[in-house]
């Protein structure tokens, strides 16, 4: 699937947004409208190596489970790599790029990429669906960080 990119401007410092994004337990707060049944993959939900498993709520998706792990965190970028689909055979990557913007705001850009190896997996890809859901998640992220509203639940370790 071609990469899907969404952008939002948030009136918060870049460092605060990076700290928020580097804690995987915060991600369901703004992604829970299309990613559900979250579970952490380890107890420590912050930093490189932290990850989560979830189910993608996409129509006609029989193999909706996926996961991702934070593999890079810097002062301008957060990268998450994961797998999804049947037998976890599809590779996924999400990249958050943050840049200072005029007026004490931060430009937040999220790019989602998926690599499907099987023709049956490529048939189920819906770039428009991912674009809509990604754009909504960035709008929710902005409302959470700027106004402290529209907060969803925090994820916990499986079995708790």
From TrEMBL:
Protein name (Swiss-Prot/TrEMBL): SRPBCC family protein
Family annotation (Pfam families): Polyketide_cyc2
InterPro entries: Polyketide_cyclase/dehydratase, START-like_dom_sf
Lineage: Bacteria, Bacillati, Actinomycetota, Thermoleophilia, Solirubrobacterales
């Amino acid at each position: 699937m071609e990469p899907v990119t969404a952008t939002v401007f948030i009136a918060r410092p870049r460092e605060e947004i990076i700290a928020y994004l580097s804690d995987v337990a915060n991600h369901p707060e703004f992604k829970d409208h299309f990613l559900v049944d979250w579970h952490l993959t380890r107890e420590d939900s912050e930093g490189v190596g932290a990850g989560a498993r979830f189910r993608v709520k996409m129509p006609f998706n029989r193999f909706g489970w996926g996961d991702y792990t934070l593999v890079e965190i810097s002062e301008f970028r957060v990268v998450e790599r994961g797998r999804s689909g049947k037998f976890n055979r599809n590779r996924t990557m999400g990249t958050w790029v943050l840049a200072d913007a005029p007026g004490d705001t931060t430009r937040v850009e999220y790019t989602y990429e998926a690599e499907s190896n099987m023709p049956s997996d490529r048939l189920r890809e819906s770039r428009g669906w991912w674009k809509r859901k990604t754009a909504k998640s960035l709008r929710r992220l902005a409302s959470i960080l700027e106004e402290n509203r529209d907060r969803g639940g925090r994820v916990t370790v499986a079995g708790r």
